[in-house]
Amino acid sequence: MSTIDVFKLANTRAKGKRPNFLDDPAVERVLSITLAVAGELAVTRERLDTVERLLAKNDLLSQAAIDAYEPSEQEAQQRAMWHQEYLARIFRIVQQELEALERSDPSSEDVGATLAEGESD
Amino acid sequence: MAEYGAERYGPSADVPPDYRVAGRHAMMPAANHDEIARFNFLANLVKYVSTRVLPGTAVAYQNRAEPAFEDKHGHKPRDRREVRKAMEGDPYYKIWSALRLNTMEMRQQAGRSVVLRQLDELNAAAKSLNDDKPTLQLDPSVEIPRYIGSVDNHLMPGSYYTELVADDVSPAANYDVGIFVTTQGLFGLHTDGAGHGLVKWLADNHPDLKINRILDIGCGLGHNSVPVALGFPDAEMYAVDVAAPMLRYGHARAQDLGATNLIFKQGNAEALDFPDQHFDLIYSTMFVHETSYKALHRIMAECRRLLRPGGLHVHLEQPPFHGMSPFEQFLRDWDAYYNNEPFWSTVHSLQMTDVMAKVGFDRASLFETKVTAVVDETIFPKAGDFDYGRGCVWYTFGAQAEAA
Questions:
Q1: What global pTM score does this model have?
Q2: Which chain B residues have a beta carbon less than 8 Å from that of A71?
Q3: Is A65 on the interface with B (CB under 8 A)?
Q4: For residues B88 and B86, what is the distance between their CA atoms, to the nearest angstrom?
Q5: B87: exposed, middle or buried (C-beta count within 10 Å: 0-12, 13-18, 19+)?
Q6: Are residues B164 and A84, on separate chains, in Cβ contact within 8 Å?
Q7: Which pLDDT tens digit goes with each residue over B343-384?
Q8: Which domains does chain B have, with CATH numbers?
Q9: Could you give the ipTM of this predicted complex?
Q10: Are B180 and A80 in contact (CB under 8 A)?
Q11: Of B259, B247, B362, B260, which is closest to residue B304 (Cα–Cα)?
């Protein structure tokens, strides 16, 4: 029987000081947790897809059948595309940050100020 | 998910293959449905971050960081260190960095969680395949050098050498089971595209070189040793590394893949106990960046000592910095600072021809070239530098020892 603490050791850190990129370490921590949750949702979604496809194919379901399921090349591509769209949804804010970098817009408040010009005259 | 397809989505259909197409062998840890789905997610996350997020760092640099630096200093950043000063506070660079760091860490967690739950079975499988064969030569007196022991390379907890239990293979098993996440098959069915590429390069460029004895230094688990051993089945071949877990796993894996002419030997490439002029071919793949300045010179000197007259040494590496824009150098340096590749920045600034000349190789014998991965393109995408430092065309340098 194994004597090692698998749950702890699987998650252990690499030797070497970890950088903090974001200004607030608390935000950095939330990002790590959010990404892990995102990953687990993706895993669940892929499993559900397997279940659905198998149910449709075989009209039966077993644990072994799920583990043995191998998507065809086309099915695998569909699943990977789902992942890419899913990631695009999660990282919407990063994409939008880049779009704002490419074309900066005034804020509504700033526009509001220009639209109000003359109001106090 | 049946609505997805190239016909409706065009370029969005360029996605990584399913994990299940990666090559299997007797030592590969078994992964269940959800563990495979986790690798698929991570492969897609790496692809997303490198193709959708990373390119934006250049926009952030041009539109924001570079102009701000120029305003402050009166000139544009002149080298990668000044680019770093300009970029390190940039919010877009920071989110890319934070995402990339997390992908590296999550890949390690995913691999280790698969491996450690079946650690006893894996160690037993290795023991059974290794079976006290003379082709596995471990030497517990070999010390872990400072350049491997100071930080865990590419954020791999425990690095190549940590043994959780006696006769452990877990570092190699984790390396092998999860490498698909970062390579996505670009390096070939068995992550052996560099080895196959080297065999082809030798056939194309040195068809008449007599190769009876081969040495692979810093072999790791032998991803790129096996294809060379299979390419020269009549040669006696040694693959050396400092880390016993890599050698145990690598030897067992090689036995299963049919490379029985391949001897895995624990040793430090700075000083090996082979006789002078013993080898016809000495090579390494993605090895020299995980050494140090002094060690690199000692390794090159050792190559010179071990090559027979007319013999060849060849090293495949990430591209050097000379000829690159300061911004690209800066991006590649990410690994040096944040991916625990502490020698990365220095090694890529060196002129390898100078290093080799310094240890005594005749300048006329030196060469610099490129070697392209040979992979199964029916399964895997064609070569492309999709992620900085991880393309599958390698900068290659070496020398042919003077004939007697």
A1: 0.89
A2: 18, 20
A3: no
A4: 6
A5: buried
A6: no
A7: 999 999 999 999 999 999 999 999 999 998 887 766 555 544
A8: 18-133+167-178 (no CATH), 183-400 (3.40.50.150)
A9: 0.72
A10: no
A11: B362
